[in-house]
Specification:
Blueprint (H helix, E strand, L loop, with lengths): L9 E5 L4 H12 L3 E6 L4 H9 L4 E5 L7 H12 L4 E4 L14 H29 L3 E6 L12 H21 L4 E8 L8 H5 L1 H10 L12 H8 L10 E4 L7
Length: 250
C-alpha cells in the first residue's frame, strides 16, 4: 500500500549489525528505503540482506558515546546525500545492584543510550530543517521506560530519558514536519537479554508474565518501525508504541 511505502527515502539506523538494529534496517529496506547503517564494526550481514532487496546500503563505522554525532551524520550525508529517517536503536546495558553500581558503568550506558541519541537526532533534524523537508525520527525505548526493573539503574534511567526526550522533541519539531516517536520493545531475544534467558528462574518469571507466552523476536518490530517512518504516521507525534507481547498490559 502506498501509504506505507518508503520508496525514495534514506534511513539511518544505529547499531544495525545484528539483533534489533538489523531487523529494523531490513524492514525499512523492504518498504523501499535505502539504508545508512551505523555500527562499531562492518555490518556485512545487514548489508547483504539490504542489497538483496535491491536497496543501497551505506556503512558508517563509529562508536556512539565516543565519536561526535556531527561527524557521524556528516559521514552519512557524504555517502547517501540526504537523510529522511533516523532510527536511534544502538544501546548497551550493564547489570549490577544499585548499591554496587559504578560511575563507569553509569556513564557507559547513558552516553550511548541517551546522550548520543539526542545529538544524532539534533543533527538529523537540523539537516531536515535546512532542506525544508519532512522527516521521521524513531527512538528505541523499552518497557523499562515505564517501569523500574531491577539491577539495571543506568539502563532504566536512559530509557526513561528516551521517552521524555521523544515527547520534548515531538513538541519542538512537529511544526517543522518532523515526527518524533518511539518504539518500546518488551523482552526480546537479543544479546542484551542473554543473561536473563540463561537464568532458568528469571527466564521462567519473565515468560510467566508475557501474555503472548514467548520472548520477542527482532522481526516483531518490523511493522511498528515501517508504520512510524511512513506517511501513515504523519499525525503521530510523541507516541511510544509498545511491542511487548502484552507485558505492560499484565
Amino acid at each position: 500500500m502506498q501509504l506505507f511505502s518508503l520508496e525514495g527515502r534514506v534511513a539511518m539506523v544505529t547499531g544495525c549489525n545484528k539483533g534489533l538494529g538489523q531487523a529494523l534496517a531490513v524492514a525499512l529496506a523492504r518498504a523501499g528505503a535505502d539504508i545508512v547503517g551505523v555500527s562499531r564494526s562492518a555490518a556485512d550481514t545487514t548489508r547483504g540482506r539490504v542489497e538483496a532487496l535491491g536497496r543501497r546500503f551505506h556503512g558508517v563505522e563509529a562508536e556512539l558515546g565516543r565519536d561526535k554525532a556531527g561527524d557521524i551524520v556528516a559521514r552519512a550525508l557524504t555517502q547517501a546525500g540526504k537523510l529522511d529517517i533516523l532510527v536511534n536503536n544502538a544501546g548497551t546495558i550493564r547489570r549490577a545492584p544499585a548499591l554496587e553500581f559504578t560511575e563507569e558503568d553509569w556513564d557507559a550506558v547513558v552516553d550511548v543510550n541517551l546522550k548520543a541519541a539526542f545529538f544524532l537526532a539534533q543533527r538529523v533534524a537540523r539537516h531536515l530543517v535546512e532542506r525544508g523537508s519532512r522527516g521521521k525520527i524513531v527512538n528505541i525505548a523499552s518497557v523499562l521506560s515505564f517501569q523500574g526493573g531491577i539491577r539495571v539503574p543506568s539502563y532504566t534511567a536512559s530509557k526513561s530519558g528516551i521517552l521524555g526526550l521523544t515527547r520534548l522533541l515531538a513538541n519542538e519539531w512537529a511544526g517543522h514536519g518532523i515526527n518524533v516517536n518511539a518504539i518500546a520493545p518488551g523482552y526480546m531475544a537479543t544479546d542484551n537479554t542473554q543473561a536473563l534467558r540463561d537464568d532458568p528462574q528469571r527466564s521462567a518469571d519473565i515468560l510467566g508474565r508475557i501474555p503472548a507466552g514467548r520472548w520477542g523476536d527482532p522481526d516483531d518490530l518490523a511493522g511498528a518501525v515501517v508504520f512510524l517512518c511512513s506517511d501513515a504516521a504523519n499525525y503521530v507525534h510523541g507516541h511510544a508504541l509498545a511491542v511487548d507481547g502484552g507485558w505492560l498490559a499484565r
